[in-house]
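Example 4.3 (complexes with small molecules)
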Amino acid sequence: MTIHRTVLLQEVIDGLALKPGGRYIDGTVGGGGHSEAILRGAPDSHLLGLDADPLAIQRTAARLAAFEARVKLANQNFSQLGEAARANGFDSVDGIVLDLGLSSDQLEDRRRGFGFIAGGPLDMRFNPNQGLSAAELINVLEPDELADLIYRYGEEPASRRIARAIEAARPIETAEQLADVVEKAIGRRGRIHPATLTFQALRIAVNDEMGALLTVLPQANELLKSGGRLAVISFHSLEDRIVKEYLRSASRVRPAQPDDPPDMVRHEPTLRLITHKPIVPGDEEVANNSRARSARLRVAEKL
Ligand SMILES: C[S@@+](CC[C@H](N)C(=O)[O-])C[C@H]1O[C@@H](n2cnc3c(N)ncnc32)[C@H](O)[C@@H]1O
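Answer. The structure with S-adenosylmethionine bound is encoded below.
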């Protein structure tokens, strides 16, 4: 059963300017909310849905089964978007959506260790069959490396204190244990759990989320047909900065720099910005879904 509530659903559909018979890629298929709306909104369209999480693909295959041959799903990381698209015959598409981060299905599954829920192992991998889990990572990193990671990806001001407390408590095996260690180290500050930024930082590091985002954007641009749309939803400032900077630079002529060599290639823009400021959810959506609170949607069109 899917419990994830799709964020900015109508705004993404409007942003994609759906075309009947179009070809679309959902790089973060998750619970399938955006994918289903694309398939319903664009008659005779075809969709390729990717997710790094094998469980998400399994669940969503059942949800989208009614669309039969119009859907292909693949358990792949969007850092391999170009390859996955070409392998499935989606090398020239009308729209691509990326709804970043994790789903509520993942957050609330205690076996995954994304949240502070009691009893879960500290895993946090979107794909539990690949790479190091969060527990493996925090149990092997030097305290300085751990502090840098928590500062960089969580923007957590108390990162050094937290890293020292983690070092003293190692080995840490469960999400609950880590949440307790952080709470003891820095105390409670208001309504938000004190380990929130530490958990965010670890999840980003475990899944190399910034690396994947940096690599997917030019691949997505490359796959779009002229007039095709790219819609990206981010959930924190580190992600949004990467998306904003990429879309801005791809939509501008590269200005000449004083130290450019004479044969420097001038970059012509490849995208046109559709949103100059990000689209954010309305009050009603935020009231019904607290996860939507920090969502920001940016859309661009291929020239
Ligand atoms: C916010 S959810 C998507 C929800 C979906 N739009 C819906 O309406 O149900 C994000 C999904 O992206 C997946 N994901 C995150 N980073 C990924 C990556 N680099 N490659 C592929 N999937 C990724 C996560 O596993 C998660 O299922």
